[in-house]
Amino acid sequence: MTPTHEHPSAGTERTRLAPALAEAAARLAEAGVASPRVDAELLAAHTLGVGRGRLLLIDTLRGDELRRFGELVAERARRIPLQYLLGTAAFRHLELAVGPGVFVPRPETELLAGWGIARTVPGATVVDLCSGTGAIALSVADEAEPGRVFAVERSPAALAYLRRNAVDFPSVRVVPGDVNDPELLVECRGGVDVLLCNPPYVPDGTAVPPEVSDHDPAEAVFGGADGLVLIRPVIALAAALLRPGGAIGIEHDDVHAEAVPELLRADGRFADVAAHEDLAGRPRYATARRV
Ligand SMILES: C[S@@+](CC[C@H](N)C(=O)[O-])C[C@H]1O[C@@H](n2cnc3c(N)ncnc32)[C@H](O)[C@@H]1O
Fold first, then answer.
1. Which of 138, 200, 204, 198 is nearest to 172 (CA)?
2. Is residue 68 lining ligand 1, measured as CB closer than 6 Å?
3. Which of 16, 50, 162, 163 is 20 to 30 Å from 138 at the Cα level?
4. Lowest-confidence range among 1-15, 107-121, 178-192?
5. Ligand 1: which atom is nearest the Cα of residue 221?
6. Residue 219 CA: which ligand 1 atom is closest?
7. pTM listed for this prediction
8. Which residue's CA is the closest to the ligand 1 atom numbered 6?
9. Would you tell me how many other CB atoms lie within 10 Å of the CB of residue 280?
10. Cα–Cα distance between 198 and 279 in angstroms, integer?
11. Which pLDDT score is estimated for 1?
12. Ligand 1 mean position to 200 CA, how many Å?
């Protein structure tokens, strides 16, 4: 970053923030980053240790701050996910710890979490399969009053972040496990009120942005040739775990607007199957009730 707008202040070289931000945003735009201005502001706020809204009150950067900001912008221009650089991902009311080797929670999943929260009555037993860093499980614990939330995850890297994020949520039990295991949570069979899952669901071979292809773990993103390889066992497991009347919600790929509701209907143990879109109007999750 070129310090073109310096002026002396109390004997220290300082650079004006506004042009530094504009230059950073232009560099990120050139690198193909989808939201260059927002990312530049979040990286500047992170460098300065303030919230993004406080940037309006800051005029200049010190030399060391400018250097650190420049380094972060350079990393983001190499398409390292913004959240890895910040060390956190915002999800509903939470700031989740994230880092290299784990899936970054996505805003679209906030809708599935909200659907589950609305169905979680006080004392309910909730299961979040493929929990990752805990976005869904911890939001349910944060915004509803569940008795227990089982957060199931297979990846050791994700489990480390999940345990860290779950520290302040005593209702959340972290369960290392594989959704292909029909004995998973066997002690809860027939007693689960709400089961939620954002599994790996992108069909193998689908083109994805560099942040995803180079950084999100493949096992968190891709769901086999048709993208449904994990969704099938999740539906079978849900049918075994949910109590009659219990609710299931599964996030899925844009191309599965019909396939996932159809899998739920074909199982024969679910009613009230419904398809839901995300805020961008794309098919995003399917829900049903265990009969
Ligand atoms: C799309 S990510 C979702 C993470 C989290 N639920 C979220 O919304 O941010 C899918 C997660 O499933 C985990 N996973 C993949 N295969 C699994 C399996 N067979 N059993 C359990 N977890 C699995 C991955 O490690 C990853 O953390």
1. 138
2. no
3. 50
4. 1-15
5. 1
6. 15
7. 0.93
8. 131
9. 9
10. 17
11. 55
12. 6
Assess whether the C-beta atom of 200 lies below 6 angstroms from ligand 1: yes
3-state secondary structure 206-217: CCCCHHHHHCCC
With pLDDT > 70 as the criterion, what percentage of the chain qualifies? 96
Question: Is 151 near ligand 1, meaning CB less than 6 Å away?
Answer: no
Q: Is the CB of 180 under 6 A from ligand 1?
A: yes
Q: For residue 205, which amino acid is it?
A: G
Beta strands per DSSP E along the chain: 6-9, 12-16, 60-62, 88-91, 94-97, 125-129, 148-153, 172-176, 192-197, 242-251, 270-277, 283-290
pLDDT tens by residue, 39-65: 999 999 999 999 999 999 999 999 999
Pairing of strands 242-251, 283-290: antiparallel
Residue 213: both structure tokens together:
């292809």
Distance 103 CA to ligand 1 centre (A): 8
List, in order, residues 6 or more apart from 255 with CB less than 8 Å away.
Answer: 203, 227
Residue with tokens 């071979």: 205
The percent of residues in the chain predicted with pLDDT above 90, rounded, is 96
What letter represents residue 126's amino acid?
Answer: V
Predicted pLDDT of residue 9:
43
pLDDT (tens digit, 9 = 90+) per residue, 131-185? 999 999 999 999 999 999 999 999 999 999 999 999 999 999 999 999 999 999 9
Neighbours of 49 (CB within 10 A): 8
**Integer Cα distance of 47 and 83 in angstroms:** 14
How many residues make up the chain in this entry?
291
Q: Which two tokens stand for residue 8?
A: 């002396």
Q: How much is the pLDDT for 10?
A: 46
Q: pLDDT at position 276, please?
A: 98
The mean of the pLDDT values for the chain is 95
Type of residue at 180: N
- Cβ–ligand 1 contact at 109 (below 6 Å): yes
